[in-house]
Design a protein that fits this description.
The chain is of the alpha+beta class and about 300 residues long. The chain is built from 10 helices and 11 strands.
């Protein structure tokens, strides 16, 4: 079992611990519970989907990186594919609090980055804050997204955020998790970082600024992780592409992994540039090797 789970696993009930141990002991466990895993867990524990997801929240919280608050939040995004994606809050010491990633955002971006096209339910330790409720309005599940919390009835996002402002108010109908390909290319000889950044930029969600972008990072373990920009109708809850890339590193690798190199993929003169803020945050994280890659349209979107 990965060391990240050692202090959180005992918080699971005895029945869930016994059923989940073989899954979390897998060498290649990557923070995703497949439908077969979920069925096995339900069969062994006798729990339904909602109760099982709530019972597994301590395992999701094991991914939390909270050097500032020391407050660990776990979330599970339950996709229509049947996969469950674990997520947790992520903070960066020495970086403004606005750069933090909330647990719900982490689980959602985890699902999005892995190709999930729609979410059915978000399960989380605590009632979603206003920031997260607004972030979730961008999803293609819209107000029907179910939210499941310990000790409460399952409600919808519409119940938690009445009279909300969202994409439809700005005439936007392509939503977060809808498959997108913006038709960008990169001139010159590509390399794995560039390829990963280009793929993420092409699926990025930026319907308000049209400033599609992505960040790809290379770690000291030789792994490449990419994050796509996720824009929001209310602007401030937008998730920068660096945060999306870093949370994938934390989910698939470890918070101890070091970022050796990064690339920012965006157009020449976008309305919103991610480069300066990415460079500043990466320097705080100990990475100085940051390159900007210019993406250009190859086809009409």
């Amino acid at each position: 079992m990965h060391q990240r789970f050692t202090s959180f696993f005992p918080q699971l009930s005895a029945d869930i611990q016994a059923a989940a141990l073989p899954i979390f002991n897998r060498e290649q466990f990557n923070g995703i519970l497949a439908p077969a895993d979920i069925q096995a867990l339900k069969a062994q524990t006798g729990l339904d989907d909602d109760a099982l997801a709530i019972g597994l929240l301590p395992a999701a919280a094991a991914y939390s990186v909270a050097p500032i608050s020391q407050f660990h939040v776990g979330a599970i995004a339950r996709g229509v594919s049947g996969n469950w994606y674990l997520g947790a809050n992520v903070e960066f010491a020495g970086v403004p609090l606005g750069q933090s990633i909330h647990a719900e955002q982490c689980a959602i971006v985890h699902a999005w980055s892995c190709g999930e096209t729609r979410l059915d339910t978000i399960t989380v330790n605590y009632s979603p804050c206003g920031h997260c409720r607004q972030f979730m309005t961008e999803l293609n599940s819209q107000r029907e997204l179910k939210i499941s919390l310990p000790g409460r009835d399952v409600l919808t996002l519409g119940d938690y955020l009445v009279d909300s402002f969202g994409p439809a108010d700005l005439g936007i109908h392509t939503l977060l998790l809808d498959p997108q390909d913006h038709g960008y290319s990169i001139q010159g000889n590509n390399h794995p970082l560039a390829d990963a950044a280009l793929e993420a930029a092409n699926r990025s969600h930026a319907p308000y600024s049209l400033s599609h972008s992505a960040v790809a990072i290379l770690t000291d373990k030789g792994e490449v992780y990419a994050g796509a920009y996720a824009e929001n109708a209310a602007f401030n809850p937008s998730l920068p592409p660096l945060q999306a890339a870093v949370l994938m590193m934390y989910l698939k690798g470890s918070p101890d992994d070091r970022i050796l190199r990064a690339v920012v993929a965006e157009e020449t003169a976008p309305q919103i540039s991610q480069y300066a803020s990415t460079l500043e945050t990466l320097r705080t994280l100990g990475c100085e090797d940051v390159q900007k890659l210019v993406i250009t349209r190859r086809i009409n979107p």
